Amino acid sequence: MRDIPGAWKRAARGAGLLSDDGAPIPTIFAEMSALAADTGAINLGQGFPDEDGPEEILQVARRAIADGVNQYPPGRGILDLRQAIADHQHRFYGISLDPERDVLVTAGATEALAAALLAFTDGPDDEVVVFEPYYDAYAATVALAGARLVPVPLRAPDFQPDLDELRSAVSDRTRVILVNDPHNPTGAVFSRDVLDEVVSLAHRHDALIVTDEVYEHLAFDTPHTPIATLPGAWERTLTISSGGKTFSTTGWKIGWATGPADLVDAVLAVKQFLTYVNGAPFQPAIATGLRLPDAFFHGTADTLKAKRDVLGTGLHAAGFEVFEPAGTYFTVVDAAPLGATDAAAFCRSLPERAGVVAIPLTAFVTSGHRSAYATLVRFAACKRTEVLEEAAARLAALSA
Ligand SMILES: *Cc1c(COP(=O)(O)O)cnc(C)c1O
């Protein structure tokens, strides 16, 4: 292919998406979704819901378009949404935010993460500590920023980091410790010890903490604890979330970053020139969602937990070793008991063998670290119950 110069190669290489001859490689998500489409297999690969969220939220968006909410909203987001975000942080976590200064609406959590990493790092001497496996955008964005990714491994069965390994990853070169909790892809919810250690290391090495809390309402057993609420964390923490996962509106891309005004201003300085603004008619709709009664939020977690269990039953019956998740859309299993030695090959064969599509965990790790995850596979449970029941029945037949 043509040799197109530029930073795109860093991003693609960072995410493991560039072949040796410089050609872009499609993501495993695209490959597996195409495989699902070709074979008619049930797609438990990519994590998006197959039904709509609450009707009242959808109604507000429809009405907003009809009412002419179709031009650029303010740069920081519609004030009523910023107020709703502040109220939500106070209602669930006791965090007090000034909607004028401490809240920024973004094009999904993804833009908030990208803008934060670009804002807080400046070249190859700056390091970003992440837990591995990680959401694929992290490695690509850190690479695009020209900074260095420093992964700390999470291992089965509980996927909590080893605190000594965490301590040795953080240094005075660390600009950002990036924490995704509840965690995609493993479904882990980090222990209080882990969160405390992150805060203490950030202090010791004068690093910032950036959190990705898009699954904040999808923790099954214990209420979510934002790191920003830990003693000493607030002034160095940028908290990121999004309406996509909570309200089953992943296509709307309404996210937000909250924290001390100077951190939010730094992110705004970058975000302003990425998208400027987005999703005007969706912003009042997400404000409505954030103001739904507590029962909605608990109900969402309970419904997803029941779906996790439907999927888990099928995965157990199939003979996988199942690492029961404490939150998120996802369940990770070890396919080694079924004879797998290479999760990617196993996933390529699964539509044929069982009519189900899943994602190998190696898609979420740095290329040199794949062997530790060689037989692990991620399944998504964010589908209609009857779809999961059918998938579970098909998977159970694998052991026959
Ligand atoms: C889905 C997801 C995102 C993306 O959120 P958007 O609001 O759609 O940009 C970010 N982080 C994690 C861990 C996710 O799973």
The largest pleated sheet is described as:
7 strands, mixed
Give the overall average pLDDT: 96
The DSSP helix count reads: 14
Kindly provide the radius of gyration, computed on alpha-carbon positions and rounded to a whole number of angstroms: 21 Å
Helical content stands at 40-55%
Strand order of the largest sheet: 2-8-7-6-5-3-4
Q: State the low-pLDDT regions, or none.
A: none
Give the total of beta strands: 13
- Structural class category: alpha/beta
Order of helices and strands: HHEHHEHEHEHEHEEHEHHHEEHEEEH
Strand content: 5-15%
What is the global morphology?
globular
Bound molecules: pyridoxal-5'-phosphate
End-to-end span in angstroms? 46 Å
GO molecular function, one term: transaminase activity
Cofactor: pyridoxal 5'-phosphate
Domain Aminotransferase class I/classII large: 41-395
Protein name: Pyridoxal phosphate-dependent aminotransferase
Describe the fold and architecture.
- Pfam families: Aminotran_1_2 (PF00155).
- GO terms for molecular function: transaminase activity.
- The strands form three sheets. The chain has a seven-stranded mixed beta sheet, sandwiched between helices.
- It is of the alpha/beta class.
- It is globular, with a radius of gyration of 21 Å.
- Strand 5 (174-180), helix 8 and strand 6 form a beta-alpha-beta unit.
- It contains 14 helices and 13 strands.
- 51% of the residues are buried.
- The protein has helices spanning 8-14, 28-39, 55-66, 79-93, 108-120, 136-144, 163-169, 192-204, 243-246, 261-271, 282-290, 294-318, 343-354, 385-396; strands at residues 42-43, 103-107, 127-132, 148-153, 174-180, 208-212, 237-242, 254-258, 321-323, 330-334, 356-357, 359-360, 376-380.
- The protein is 40% helix and 15% strand.
